[in-house]
């Protein structure tokens, strides 16, 4: 019950924060539209769009959740909640469920736009494409919740983006094939969960087959999201010192 109560509270707050909702739901779609016409080629866009469907929600959910969680700590909201009989994991699961629902809306809007107006071609099941993109958004959210425990100000929370998000974006295969990178970078990319999400999205758009590699990639992304939530619960503090 405490988890659902936290979920309702976060969703109620978001309902009154139109700018944040617009940022989370509409920004990935707007960026996809922008890049479609930057490339000005359906063929080039079809090669890049699968990765972008994972990267944009991942980055945006990381920023929003890390700042939102830190703000609740700075305003003593988190301190008041933790005086109640509620576990740390229950609290974070409430955050995760609320932002996860927003992530579903975010990805469905972006995927619908890409598949219709922007001409993205998908060989595999569309539902699987949406599921992978949602898992990616949830991964960004979970990492944002975890990172917020180490920030003392909102500015510091934003600074975690180049430390946690950008290396994954650069090494996930969006800009260059991972197997063509220098040896050390290739090894590092194999350790980053966003690489597996991008691989899964790319495979779904190019092949209708659901094989062991795809299942493995999905499990890696989901497992990393769960691990980030558990670490976030372990490092959750009542207030920022």
Report on the biggest sheet.
none
**Structural class determined from secondary elements:** mainly alpha
**CA gyration radius, whole angstroms:** 18 Å
The rounded distance between the terminal residues' Cα atoms is 29 Å
Which stretches are low in confidence, meaning pLDDT under 50 for 5 or more residues running?
none
Overall tally of structural domains:
1
**Mean pLDDT, as a whole number?**
85
Q: How many β-strand stretches? A: 0
Q: What is the 3D shape?
A: globular
Strand content: under 5%
Q: Which series of helices and strands comes N to C?
A: HHHHHHHHHH
Question: Helical element count?
Answer: 10
How helical, in percent, are the residues? Answer: over 70%
Describe the structure.
The chain has 241 residues and is an all-alpha fold. It has one domain. The chain contains ten helices and no strands. The longest helix has 33 residues, at 42-74. The chain is globular. The chain starts with a helix and ends in a 6-residue tail after the last helix. The model has no long low-confidence stretch (mean pLDDT 85).
